[in-house]
Specification:
With 649 residues, the protein is of the alpha/beta class. It has 20 helices and 30 strands. The strands form eight sheets. It has an eight-stranded mixed sheet, sandwiched between helices. Strands 5-4-17-16-18-19-20 form a seven-stranded mixed sheet, sandwiched between helices. Helix 4 (80-93) runs antiparallel to helix 5. It starts with 20 loop residues before the first helix and ends in a 6-residue tail after the last helix. It binds ligand 6R9. Ligand 6R9 binds at residues 265, 312-313, 388-391, 413-418, 439, 500-502, 514, 517, 609. Belongs to the ATP-dependent AMP-binding enzyme family. Residues 31-84 form the Acetyl-coenzyme A synthetase N-terminal domain. CoA binds at residues 194-197, 313, 525.
């Protein structure tokens, strides 16, 4: 993309929503924080680090003497599990519920901080009994059950970095991640409940371990009770080994830069990248952002993040941020349509959830299912809504606000990545006048901007590439075992700046709008057009629930826009409707953005964290064999979509 053809700035969204007065008056973080952080960024982060309990207080904040390899709070020492659990019990909050667990079949468990402390200590002792020591890597392949949280905290407690792999990734995907991290132990379960039935997990581990000889033990949580193949001497039942452990375990103080976890991101091509996060900076920023962005009042709020722990959102905003802040939260094992499409709302009602954090993919699915479903439940406990994972289309934002938030809850659209560790760009719920579809402003202490091809900051009203211009506490420290790839991937495109890989624009007020991955940007007749803007235009038509657009090679225009749309429950597919949708995009964005072809489909290819995989749709649109589908949540979706496609290009 060159500067004179940077992303066409097409979408105009004029709606504005001021923060609710009551929330603003009592907000955890107010406008003053921006100025304070700007005046002295490092002093601001040093102050945030004091949210944590350190065994040895840091005297240094940032060491950036060897960029891009950062050290934060380097001479400090702390234990993450102590911060997430023990200190709340010591403060007299042991009876507070940490986790309201809701299993898919309807079983539930409430776990207090005191109980969580005992579980984590026993699991830490069990890891030690199995020969795991500080620095050893542990792979975690579990369903969404409390043992996943316990396992992660037990690893953190003894200083054994965990590598959580999505339960549901194939044996091959698990094997390559176990090998890359050279894990010594795997923690898994017999199975978990998905779509109304037990779904086995351990067989994938058994297969994966055929090519991972270094793994000494497999620790198996009993969740479904299904028949499970067993390797004597290697496999150990979680309940049996933890039952004989003491609830006493003294947490060791680890260096602030001790590795906390590795989490693999698939990226678009090539070998998955093991993103490395460390201890003190990561916990400081996850705790601060959870406090600031969600305005958490731990005494009264019931918080719920619907992500899977296999995704970074689950690490930072189910495990580390909320628990460091002493939150009470809901954890749900299953799918949102089991046994019925109102399941999420039923759980909100049951626990009186006040803060709900979810992804645009689920919001658009709810739109497809219809307004009548949330209307059947009492959602009046909600006071704040969050969104993460993809750009949220303005129309989906409005739907979320009205149908879930009752028109009263502020929405925080939070931009961040596995690599950033914590939320970076987001409105503050008590401060920012919200704009549907925009993440808007870097949080206090964060420096982000949009640059053109030559690294010049673009003027307000223009588009380009999102970059982060200063190091931040929860930044990735490297790619596990590959420092050079870390430098090449993130720090080489623009000298001294972190390249996020996302297109973005700044509006007339300087607010940031995310426009999708740079790899997905379409080049039509010499204009760079963002996938996000065309998708948002399609979703703004009342018959459309969800859309994915790609640029397909075209003899006349270079690339032509091809759109795949999912209609709302009430709409019927017809040639007239397709023509109407093309005209609608033309009206909203201008004729250049009109899709050449629109196909209606019933599903879109998505990753397990709900992101649309446009690369696969491009293969379909260009009549190629569909590429690697291993990270797809449901691989049958591609067959369905291809069957919709006429064979001639
Ligand atoms: C947390 C997470 C990172 C990529 C990121 C961007 C997209 C995430 C977004 C968003 C627009 C938001 N993304 N949040 N785009 N608005 N609020 O999703 O991490 O799985 O590593 O993905 O997701 O493209 O670069 P990860």
């Amino acid at each position: 993309m060159s500067s004179n053809e940077s992303l066409a700035n097409l979408l105009k969204e004029e709606r504005r929503f001021a923060p609710p007065g009551e929330l603003a008056a009592a907000a955890n973080v107010t406008a003053e924080a921006y100025g304070r952080a700007k005046a002295d960024r490092l002093a601001f982060w040093a102050e945030q680090a004091r949210r944590l309990t350190w065994a040895q207080e840091p005297t240094q904040t940032l060491d950036w003497s060897n960029p891009p390899f950062a050290k934060w709070f380097a001479d400090g020492k702390l234990n993450v599990a102590y911060n997430c659990v023990d200190r709340h019990v010591e403060a007299g909050l042991g009876d507070r519920v940490a986790i309201h667990f809701e299993g898919e079949p309807g079983d539930s468990r409430a776990i207090t901080y005191a109980e969580l402390k005992d579980e984590v200590a026993k699991a830490a002792n069990a890891l030690l009994e199995l020969g795991i020591r500080k620095g050893d890597r542990v792979a975690v392949y579990l369903p969404m059950i409390p043992e996943a949280v316990v396992a992660m905290l037990a690893c953190a407690r003894i200083g054994a970095p965990h590598s959580v792999v999505f339960g549901g990734f194939s044996a091959d995907a698990v094997a390559s991640r176990i090998q890359d991290a050279d894990a010594k132990l795997v923690i898994t379960a017999d199975g978990g409940y998905r779509r109304g039935k037990p779904s086995a997990l351990k067989p994938a581990i058994d297969t994966a371990l055929e090519s991972c000889p270094q793994v000494e033990h497999v620790l198996v949580v009993r969740r479904t009770g299904q028949e499970t193949a067993w390797t004597e001497g290697r496999d150990v039942w979680w309940d049996e080994i933890t039952a004989r452990q003491s609830t006493a375990h003294t947490p060791e103080a680890h260096d602030a830069e001790h590795p906390l976890f590795i989490l693999y991101t698939s990226g678009t091509t090539g070998k998955p990248k093991g993103i490395l996060h460390t201890t003190g900076g990561y916990l400081t920023q996850t705790a601060f952002t959870h406090h600031a962005v969600f305005d958490l009042k731990p005494e009264t709020d019931v918080y719920w993040c619907t992500a899977d722990i296999g995704w970074v959102t689950g690490h930072s905003y189910i495990v580390y941020g909320p628990l460091a802040n002493g939150a009470t939260q809901v954890m749900y094992e299953g799918t949102p349509d089991t046994p019925h499409q109102g399941r999420i709302f039923e759980i909100v009602q049951k626990y009186g959830v006040t803060i709900l954090y979810t992804a645009p993919t689920l919001i658009r699915t709810w739109m497809k299912w219809g307004d009548a479903i949330p209307a059947k439940f009492d959602l009046s406990s909600l006071r704040l809504l969050g969104s993460v994972g993809e750009p949220i289309n303005p129309e989906a934002w409005i739907w979320y606000r009205e149908h879930i938030g009752g028109g009263r809850c502020p929405i925080v659209d939070t931009w961040w990545q596995t690599e950033t560790g914590s939320i970076m760009i987001s409105p503050l719920p008590g401060v920012t006048e919200a704009k549907p579809g925009s993440a808007q402003v870097p949080l206090p202490g964060i420096s982000a901007t949009v640059v053109d091809d030559e690294a010049h900051e673009v003027p307000d009203g223009s588009g380009g590439y999102l970059v982060l211009t200063e190091p931040w506490p929860s930044m990735l420290r490297t790619i596990w075992g590959d420092d050079q790839r870390y430098v090449d991937t993130y720090w080489s495109r623009f000298e001294g700046r972190y390249f996020a890989g996302d297109g973005a624009k700044k509006d007339e007020d300087g607010d940031i709008w995310l426009l999708g991955r740079v790899d997905d940007v379409m080049l039509v007749s010499g204009h760079n057009i963002s996938t996000t803007e065309v998708e948002s235009a399609l979703v703004s038509h009342p018959q459309v629930a969800e859309a994915a657009v790609v640029g397909a090679t075209d003899a006349t225009t270079g690339q032509a826009i091809v759109a795949f749309v999912i209609l709302r429950g009430t709409a019927t597919d017809s040639e007239e409707l397709v023509a109407e949708l093309r005209d609608h995009v033309g009206k909203v964005l201008g004729p250049i953005a009109k899709p050449k072809r629109i196909l209606t489909v019933s599903e879109l290819p998505k990753t397990r964290s709900g992101k649309i995989m446009r690369r696969l749709l491009r293969d379909v649109a260009e009549n190629r064999a569909v590429g690697d589908v291993t990270t797809l949540a449901d691989s049958t979706v591609m067959d369905l979509i291809q069957s919709k496609m006429p064979t001639a290009p």
